[in-house]
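Example record

One chain of 912 residues, shown exactly as stored in the release files.
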Amino acid sequence: MTVRSPRPRVAAPWVRTRLRAAPGAALALALLVAVTAFLAAVLPRAVDRYGDAGLHRALESAGPDSTGVQLAAPVPDAGLPQEEREAAVRGDVLRAHRSELLALAGRSLPLDPHQSSSGVRTSEAQKMSEPWLPRPDGLPAHLQLLAQDGLADHSRLREGRLPEVPGTVTAATTRVEGAVTADTAGDLNIEVGSVLTFPGVARAPLQVRITGVVEPRGPRGAYWSADPLMRTPGLTILPGDPDVRQYWMGTLLLPPDAAPALLGTAGEPLRYWGLAPSVPDLHGHDVPRLTSAVAAVESGPVLQRMREATALDIRARSELDDVLTGHTGLRTAIGPLVSVAVFGTGTVAVVVLLMAGGLAADRRGGELTLLRARGGSLRGVTGRLLAETAVVAVPAAALGLAAAWLTVREARLAYSVAAAGAVALLACLALPLRALVAHRAVRAHTGRRDVATARPARRRTVAELTLLVLAVGAVVALRTRGTSDGPNASGDHLVSLAPVLVGVIAALVLARLYPLPLRGLARPAARLRGVVGPLALARAGRASGSAVLPLLALLTALTTAAFGGSVLSGVADARDRAALLTVGADARVSALHVLPAGLPDRVRRAPGVREVTAVSVAHHAQSREGTVPVAGVDPAGYAALTRHTGVGAFDRDVLAPGGSDALPAVASPGVADRHGTRPFAVRMEDGSSITVRIVLVRERTPAVVGGDFLVVDRSALSDRAARPTALLVTGDRVDGAALRRAANGGTSVQVRAEERAGYVDSPLQSGAERVYTAAVAAGAGYAVLALLLTLVRAAPERAALLARLRTMGLTRSRGRRLLVLESLPQALLAAAGGTLTAWATIRLLAPGIDLTAVALPATRSPAGRATLLTDPVSLLAPALTVVVLTVGIAAAQAWWTGRRDAVRELRAGDAR
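Predicted structure tokens for this chain:
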């Protein structure tokens, strides 16, 4: 008799079984993790990109003459043998030195060898005696000689040929060949074949014959821009000349091997090397290291190594450190503001991930309880939950990271990997940790966890008090010292967390206060007629007691959205205000002296122009206290303009003549403090005099751009002083091009809209605005998702309730009202609490938030300090959206449940 061995038991793999059992939930988790990982990974890359773009814009604005490192060394002493002096300035020797200098400086400072240069130049321009050179004020032109390497590689030959060195040039050579740029040839009347003579020292004069005219390749590059006169000549004012006479300054280009000829001239020759930074290789996050590298080259160990390697007394000069310091200051001011939005959105994203894990744990609560009751260990259950979640979350996070890398290529990868990894880790741990806490002990029944009966634990109280202390400290710090402490500080994260902490505290307070009205209304509601109202209130009171996370997500998102809206509103208002103060109206047409007689009529006919106010401004009028600008205006029209713009508004009767001979005047505070209210004399630019008396003080006035002014009635001025010098234009969508055509040259036309558009002069500003807007939008999306998760969590129980109530005679319309009324308390709580919290946050933090760096260029801020402004749309729209979504989803669920068969919802044994 054969004994058949028992078949081996086949255990179904846990992860595969769970994924097949709930593919929809796995797909939803993967999508949530992928989107969150993408946002978390793309943020540091976006910050790096706009930081790099801001640094590159700052370098381009400063120009190569300010961003390059200029090295110079004197020519060998005259006491040395002449052959040694000549050899030291030849092109091959200087090129070898340049290679050594690039190698030494390039270890810490990225340099561009192609744009770097070396050569010999005369430091003193020589007075030229050629009669055919232009003399604008009778003064002879001054020219300098420059023998720089690489002329053929950086220029195109326009006429003639490049200069050559037929033999060996020495200090005694009297004739060499040279070239000039096209701009130099055109401005100084130099042609191919022209000969220019430079005085010599203890030798015959040096004659330079022009053999070619060249056109620079890349004229804005460092090769041509390190010395502006190399490319384009310029007019220079004679120092100390009372007549302010001018003369031409220019440069002749010699071949590098002709440099020894400069030793015999009176131009004080000098060896030099220009080290050009490689702008694409400079990154915003490396600015501290770059600043140290520049300091080391200018006066540190790198300069010392250069001197030792070349055996030369090299001197270094650069303004690159000043450019880097300005960029750092702007980034320091902008960074904390972006951090506020990032921390708010990050908090909401973390809450949503925790809610997703909690929803999964609650949905599988019966399953996990059964596993524990049948002997499943806590470690085994949580390990299997971790494995099934990791199988979904880790690939999804990797997909989000890849999408972020494809979206923004040029940025550091380490921070993106860390951010995506943190998202994956949180997604993997949310479900196991929630199950670990809920199923530490084996229970058959957990009891009720209603909002109205739940009591907070002591540990929760301690944690909430700790958060309250942190929030108070952050708010106080932000109000007292702002988002950064000093011009070179980067702000601390606690201060940037202030709006988030305020929202968190408000959510915790509301979660504690929410049960109180429910308890108070429970008994009175029981005496109401009808079943819908009392039942809805009872259902709201029997909702799950774990409502802190949804409330936290909603309040944090509402606070962040409103705070972000106030930031953007404050930035827009500051730019509008600054443009208005700069222009004075919607447009301004002005001239240095007097406008043409027919110009006002032509301007009135331009498209978009509604009103034109003529003013006469004397910028150099004199009083006993010094110079004061005086604006002569038409009282009626100008008063209407001030009311329209809101700048220094006053009534027309203010400038009406009084009983005395003194003209009534509107003055700035500074002028009023210096002159008082007594009449005083003012001498106008045409020599006439008026007597004025200050009757009203205003901070600003549209006619005068600046802090000091007097505004008087133009009809009381002399005919010459009353002639208009500016037109202030108001209208809708004033066309700047049409105004310029109407002005027909000779005048300056400023348009308010164009001025406002020019205030964003750095990618740091525009990039920060885009990141802020995207962060607020993402936070709002996560808030909606948190709301959906809350409603999805209660959907099965609500569906079963409606099915049971329909068997008892509840109509469909009453079922819809029941679900809507049940969901309204928490929705109204979140909406009202979020609105009040956002408003309080803006009021609390506004004194410590300075938006000037984001709103306006660093060089001009006529509107003063830009502060937060409460934006009603961003304050109320998100809150109303929460209520509308809640009511709409509840109504849709009731409608959908009413159309389905109630048999499935009433099956015995279903967990609801």
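Notes: DSSP finds 29 helices and 23 strands in the chain.
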